[in-house]
Design a protein that fits this description.
Helix content of chain B: 10-25%
Order of helices and strands of chain B: HEEEEEEEE
Strand content of chain A: 35-45%
Largest interface: A-B, 50 and 46 residues
Shape of chain A: elongated
Number of strands of chain B: 8
Number of domains of chain A: 1
Distance between the termini of chain B: 104 Å
Number of helices of chain A: 1
Structural class of chain B: alpha+beta
CATH class of the largest domain in chain B: Mainly Beta
Number of strands of chain A: 13
Shape of chain B: elongated
Oligomer: heterodimer
Number of helices of chain B: 1
Largest sheet of chain A: 7 strands, mixed
CATH topology of the largest domain in chain B: Immunoglobulin-like
CATH superfamily of the largest domain in chain B: Immunoglobulins
Chain lengths: 190, 136
């Protein structure tokens, strides 16, 4: 009986001895913590606008305003940009101060239009962002294919009216164009 | 008495005609005070993620972080969750808990959660909330 117990113990010792090194393979400890903080965005539109801007037929080297969608396009400047001249309105319904970035995708359809931050030329267009209160047309943020900061430190529960303009260049065909989107992003303020 | 009775009948007839007209005028005046709002505010979307930020101590392994995406609006909305998953629909007034597996080696990771445009047009609007994971 003693021999049997000794053999069993020996086998167990060997088994555990072999298993322990295998389980003790290099591991990394992760300490990760979530802050009690959340992001929240409410997007509203004025006067029948919605999440799309149908410019209709556009001419060369002209500027169109989102707020004037479907009608004669008239610059809201001079004078600070009023809420009534903003098509959209972003509210920070989250729990802290937030930054907003914006970007725009190139237009496709026929020979597409590329986004430019300079003066539009052949098959290029410029899309510009204006926050409510923007002093003049020149201080708008010219959007690109990558996100750029367009508004910083939007306080919790605060809202900001947003307006866009589209400046056309010259055309190379008459095929309808569309962009997959202007993207508004809310992030935790750095 | 014979003279009073016809007078009473006459007064009753006149009153029965005038009182309803008076009520009618009252209602008519109330209608003139009605006003129609000049502008209409269209609530397009209302949504949140919680939590939106993680901090971590450096490691060399995959970790799972989660966030809850809440559709606070009155309509169903489509989301791209920022990984390889397909677009998901979150019904109105509901939330979705979602896990991301991230390899953290000291870098800051940003996961973009996108509310997709409801319809395509010349220019569509998309909204993004960013889940930020950064070293401590």
């Amino acid at each position: 009986m003693r021999k049997v117990i000794v053999v069993i113990l020996a086998v167990l010792t060997l088994t555990v001895g072999m298993a322990v090194p295998a389980m003790a393979a290099p591991t990394a400890t992760v300490s990760i913590a979530a802050q009690p903080d959340y992001l929240c965005m409410t997007l509203t539109f004025n006067d029948g606008h919605d999440g799309s801007w149908d410019t209709g037929t556009v001419g060369e080297s002209l500027t169109y305003w989102w707020d004037d969608e479907g009608g004669a396009s008239v610059s809201p400047f001079p004078g600070a940009l009023a809420f009534a001249d903003c098509a959209g309105n972003i509210t920070n319904c989250g729990s802290g101060t937030r930054d907003i970035t914006a970007e725009v995708a190139d237009f496709t359809g026929g020979l597409g239009w590329n986004i430019t931050t300079g003066a539009p030329g052949a098959a290029t267009v410029q899309v510009t962002f204006y926050p409510e209160g923007c002093a003049d047309e020149a201080t708008g943020a010219e959007l690109d294919n990558a996100p750029i900061d367009v508004y910083e430190d939007l306080a919790t529960t605060a809202s900001i009216g947003v307006e866009l303009s589209l400046e056309t260049g010259t055309f190379t065909d008459g095929v309808a164009k569309s962009s997959t989107g202007v993207v508004f992003t809310i992030t935790v303020a750095d | 008495m014979k003279k009073i009775l016809p007078c009473l009948v006459l007064i009753t007839i006149i009153a029965s005609v005038l009182v309803p007209v008076g009520i009618g005028y009252t209602r008519s005046e109330a209608k003139t005070n009605l006003q129609i709002a000049a502008g209409e505010l269209n609530v397009w979307s209302n949504w949140s993620i919680n939590p939106c930020k993680y901090t971590y101590q450096v490691s060399e392994s995959n970790v799972r972080v989660s966030t809850t995406i809440s559709n606070l609006s009155d309509k169903d909305m489509e989301f791209n969750l920022g990984d390889s998953s397909a677009v998901v629909i979150i019904p109105a007034k509901t939330s979705l808990g979602y896990y991301y597996e991230v390899n953290l080696t000291g870098q800051t990771e940003r996961i973009r959660i996108t509310k997709l445009a409801d319809k395509q047009s010349s220019i569509s609007v998309q909204e993004v909330l960013v889940l930020k994971i950064e070293p401590r």
